[in-house]
């Protein structure tokens, strides 16, 4: 017979998990703010170079009351979504084509790896000459930096499919598009989502670099706001914009992490009790 205490034990563990997921990030933020305040009070840098957390947070609150910040966030996020969407289509198609073709993998695999490791900032001279000082130059660098990561995720996912499963599928008559639709793409989905997460990191860094290098006139963006703060030597405003960039990156990364966790749980790659 199971005792009452034993039956209640899982409930106690489940109750603690949401609390831990809440206080752990708050503890991290509090630690960073405390360290920042200590460095500020030490007088290592003058206040106009390194302002206090209170000064920066006040500046951030003031900027949040104006439409310019939200317009800049909208512009930047629209560029991120468009660039990442294009990279998603191109990278997925490229990965699917290369996955089951040894000749294409041998020919283009090193190229994809090289493109993935190439710094995004190195593409901007070419992009500016080719597209001019336009949003297209920024989108080009986002795509060229993100698509290889997504293609690599598709290829890596297909490589982790057990050969026995592939032989079984072929013995059941799955060929060509049907093989990709019913086996390869679903089986590689966990690795594919991991590739999407990595691709988003590339896209976000490329976008931030692009908005600082390619200043599109008459367009408010996060990069423009950061550039203006730098030109005015306004450190509170600059750090406030950097916090906005950090928060947006964390939020989008959290969405990818949640999707990755759901897919891994569904595919039986993690224990439901540990997720």
Automatic annotation (TrEMBL):
One of its GO terms (biological process) is transmembrane transport. Gene3D superfamilies: MetI-like (1.10.3720.10). It is a multi-pass membrane protein. It is found in: Cell membrane. Keywords: Cell membrane, Membrane, Transmembrane, Transmembrane helix, Transport. GO terms for cellular component: plasma membrane. Residues 73-256 form the ABC transmembrane type-1 domain. Its main location: membrane. InterPro entries: MetI-like, MetI-like_sf. The chain crosses the membrane at residues 21-41, 80-99, 111-131, 137-158, 179-200, 235-256. Belongs to the binding-protein-dependent transport system permease family. This is ABC transporter permease. It comes from Mycolicibacterium sphagni. The lineage of its organism: Bacteria, Bacillati, Actinomycetota, Actinomycetes, Mycobacteriales.
